[in-house]
Specification:
Shape: elongated
Distance between the termini: 63 Å
Helix content: 55-70%
Number of helices: 20
CATH superfamily of the largest domain: ABC transporter type 1, transmembrane domain
CATH architecture of the largest domain: Up-down Bundle
Structural class: alpha/beta
Length: 576
């Protein structure tokens, strides 16, 4: 999975990768050549007292060292650039993929895991890629080159290499094998911590209102304990690696000096050759140690790569039309024809045989009890979901045959939970129209009854916190309505967007909207009858079915469900 992921993202960096390999080759060859030069200086220069030989070879060693350092620095620099670039590309690809997900895919993964996959998981892959470029090329060359050079110095001690290298590889391999399942558990536990923390931060007001801080502390403590346990298991295993490596490393050094001393004493080996052999053994074991260090990182990166690939391979259930049909009418309306919808995995449909038309210049209201399917129904207009049967038409064209950008350009949506982005009042309103002037923004605010509180906040440049948490619910709704008005779309969709407003503000806002929406189709989901009393047609939903359709007066005479809603609210208003 890791190889597959990296292969598709490294193709554009083949020049840098080639240069990294060349520089690593130069650096490794220089490192392998240095012990041999040092041995020659000891055996030829020092033993014979030849100062000229020592100086000339010393200068040569210095030159080789400078070349090796320059090549190593260059390779590491390029490796860092390529790794960071791949990390950047992965994050951009994940973001681009997720931004095109429908509500179904977002719900399938969940926001916390999508965030951790685009941050922590990408970091894991990025780190192992950098280490791979920095070590993976030089390590095998140093290992096998060191073996060859060590044998060139003395064959009699080669059995030490044959024992030390497999022993080190076996010991570390067993530890790594134990690590793999814990890496998977770590990533899952990290998702859990992110999920709980995100819920607590988002719902901090609810937590405090119900005095649930101790309960939430226990929830976070449990998620944190799972992550801690997995981290400790991995940490203990990783802590075991280096003592094992150093033990084998030290014992191998002692063995070379021990058995090498006998060979030097017998005249079968020179002191310089023993020094060079020891240096080559150190290089071989260092290469094995670096390889094992890389190997400890690869399992976690492989798990992360699998999680990233899962996101990238998941395509949106809302597919773009291969041959999109343009909307040819100047003002588009909405038409539902025999629409049925059920959520994936659900046995019972949420909507049944929905048929009605919202024409331009008229207001269509949708009302019903909680869970009747109102929000699901209007979510089908901008294709947040796709119908299972029937058709939803905009401008006389099935929404599945329209280009998505063209469809969304025709719709101004005010969702049930209006969301504001970090920035200013102006930057949030210009989500509707990036080219809108300040005067157009103020006009939209006057229509949405929001100009007064925006002036009190400090004007269009007043700061807005993430999610609009520094303004009230009613102010958020009015800013979201102004954002839709700035867009001046063909279709206005208000999903219970007046619920946080008092009756007088609600009435003034609807009166101000009429001239603006004169030529547009307006679809309103509402809980209050007073909000929709003047609608041209009212759709009454009950258990996903249309049980009434007509004006307010007509429904009061013909629809029992609407009568119950109206009477219950009238009683509540009179009691208030």
């Amino acid at each position: 999975m890791l190889v597959r992921l990296l292969r598709s993202h490294l193709q554009r960096y083949h020049r840098e990768m080639t240069l990294i390999v060349v520089l690593q080759l130069i650096s490794t060859i220089a490192v392998l050549y240095l012990p041999s030069l040092n041995g020659e200086i000891i055996d030829e220069g020092v033993a014979k007292g030849d100062t000229g030989f020592i100086v000339s070879h010393g200068v040569l060693m210095l030159g080789v060292s400078i070349v090796q350092i320059a090549a190593a620095v260059g390779a590491t620099y390029l490796a860092a650039r390529v790794a960071m670039a791949v990390g950047r590309d992965l994050r951009a690809n994940i973001f681009d993929t997720v931004i095109h997900y429908s509500a179904q895919e977002v719900a399938k993964f969940g926001a916390p895991t999508l965030i951790s996959r685009n941050t922590n998981d990408v970091t894991q892959v990025q780190t192992v890629l950098f280490m791979g470029f920095a070590l993976l090329v030089s390590t095998p060359i140093m290992m096998f080159g060191g073996i060859i050079m060590a044998l060139r110095e003395d064959v009699g001690l080669s059995w030490l290499v044959a024992v030390a290298v497999p022993l080190l590889g076996l010991a570390v391999g067993l530890v790594i094998w134990r690590m793999v399942p814990w890496f998977t558990r770590m990533q899952t536990a990290l998702d859990g911590v992110n999920r709980v923390l995100r819920e607590q931060i988002t719902g901090i007001r609810v937590v405090r209102a119900f005095v649930r801080e101790p309960h939430e502390e226990k929830r976070f403590g449990a998620a944190n304990a799972d992550l801690t346990e997995a981290g400790l298991r991995v940490g203990r295993l990783m802590a075991l690696v280096f003592p094992v490596v150093m033990f084998i490393f030290s014992m191998s050094t002692v063995a070379v000096l021990w058995f090498g001393a006998y060979r030097v004493e017998s005249g079968a080996m020179e002191v310089g050759s023993l020094t060079a052999f020891l240096a080559y053994l150190v290089q071989i074991l260092m290469a094995v140690m670096m390889a094992t260090f890389m190997a400890t990182m690869i399992p976690r990166a492989a798990v992360s790569a699998g999680r990233i690939t899962e996101v990238l391979d998941t395509t949106s259930s809302i597919a773009e039309s291969v041959q999109p049909i343009p909307i040819r009418v100047p003002n588009a309306g909405v038409e539902f024809v025999g629409v049925e919808f059920h959520y994936p995995g659900a046995e019972v449909a949420v909507l049944h045989d929905i048929t009605f038309t919202a024409v331009p210049g008229q207001t269509t209201a949708i009302i019903g009890s909680t869970g009747a399917g109102k929000t699901t129904l209007i979510g089908l207009i901008p294709r947040l979901f796709d119908v299972r049967s029937g058709r939803v038409k905009v401008g006389g064209v099935d929404v599945r045959d329209l280009e998505l950008d063209a469809l969304w350009a025709r719709i101004g949506l005010v969702p049930q939970r209006p969301y504001l982005f970090t920035g200013t009042v102006a930057s949030n309103l210009r989500y509707g129209n990036p080219e809108a002037t300040d005067e157009e923004l103020w006009e939209a605010l006057r229509i949405s009854q929001g100009s007064t509180f925006v002036e009190e906040l400090g004007g269009l440049d007043a700061p807005i916190a993430q999610g609009g948490t520094n303004v009230s619910g009613g102010q958020r709704q009015r800013l979201a309505i102004a954002r839709a008005v700035v867009k001046r779309p063909d279709i206005y969709v208000f999903d219970d967007s007046f619920s946080a407003l008092d009756l007088s503000t609600d009435a003034r806002l609807r009166a101000a909207l009429r001239p603006v929406t004169r030529d547009a189709a307006v679809v309103i989901v509402a809980q209050r009858v007073s909000t929709i009393i003047d609608a041209d047609q009212i759709i009454v939903l009950d258990d996903g079915r249309i049980v009434g359709q007509g004006t307010h007066d007509e429904l009061l005479e013909t629809c029992e469900t609407y009568q119950e809603i109206a009477l219950s609210q009238r009683g509540a208003e009179e009691a208030a």
